[in-house]
Amino acid sequence: MVNTAEEVWQLLGELINAQKETERIIKEQSLETERRSQETERILKEQFQETERILKEQSQETDRRMQETDRRIKQVSQEIGKLGNRLGEFVEWQVRPSAVRLFQERGIDVHELQSDVVVKRAEGGLEIDLLLVNNTEVVLVEVKSKLTQRDVDEHLQRLEKFKPLMSRYKNMRALGAVAAMVVTDEVANYAYSQGLFVMTPSGENMTIINSNEFQPKVW
């Protein structure tokens, strides 16, 4: 209990000092909090910059790998295309020696063979792998490594354009045939239904796989 003025002033002094100490501690804590906040902000900024740098490097590396992948895909596609062309040429060389004989055996007495026939006119163009001819008939043969329904449809279009573009054959019976190393039953049946002969390998030789009762379409 305070009894004298001296004790009161002493108590007030202690209170003032305590308040000053409290203010000093609060100020120091505030400065420390601000310092830590700035340090945290600096660390976060550095981490953000580092993350941004890593992401940029990863993005550049991803772009580089994608470009390399695209280049390799194009290269492989080109090689596959070249291989497909070579296989097509190989099949054509397999077909040539036996084509005339095979159609003669079917009662189509062709005696002339032309290969890689190209027609270019103002009204359109035409490319024929093999053309078998006699005095009254002509057979257009399309050669593929693997035959697809699309190949058959394209050959049917070729047969439709044949006489308008090659008028010297307009009075002849035009027949169609497709030849390939690989022909599925589904595609072969589709070609039959469109009136085309189908030629595939049999051992070391080519053969026409249509039945003897097959009646080809005449264009």
- Over the alpha carbons, how many angstroms does the gyration radius reach? 44 Å
Which CATH top level class of the domain at 88-208 fits? Alpha Beta
Gap between N and C termini:
130 Å
Sheet with most strands: strand arrangement? 1-2-3-4-5-6
Per the principal axes of the C-alpha atoms, what is the gross shape? rod-shaped
| CATH topology annotation of the domain at 88-208 | Trna Endonuclease, Chain: A, domain 1
What portion of residues belong to β-strands? 15-25%
Number of strands: 6
Which class best fits the helix and strand makeup?
A: alpha/beta
Corresponding CATH architecture of the domain at 88-208: 3-Layer(aba) Sandwich
Q: Order of SSEs, N→C?
A: HEEEHEHEE
| Mean pLDDT score | 85
Describe the largest sheet. 6 strands, mixed
User: What is the helix tally?
Assistant: 3
**Relative helix content:** 55-70%
Unreliable sequence segments: none
Report on the architecture of this protein.
The chain has about 220 residues and is an alpha/beta fold. The protein has a domain at about 90-210: Trna Endonuclease, Chain: A, domain 1 (3-Layer(aba) Sandwich). The protein has helices at about 5-105, 150-165, 185-195; strands at about 110-120, 125-135, 135-145, 175-180, 195-200, 205-210. A six-stranded mixed beta sheet has the order 1-2-3-4-5-6, with helices on both faces. It starts with a helix and ends in an 11-residue tail after the last strand. The mean pLDDT is about 85.
Top keywords for this entry?
219 residues, alpha/beta, Trna Endonuclease, Chain: A, domain 1, 6-stranded mixed beta sheet, rod-shaped
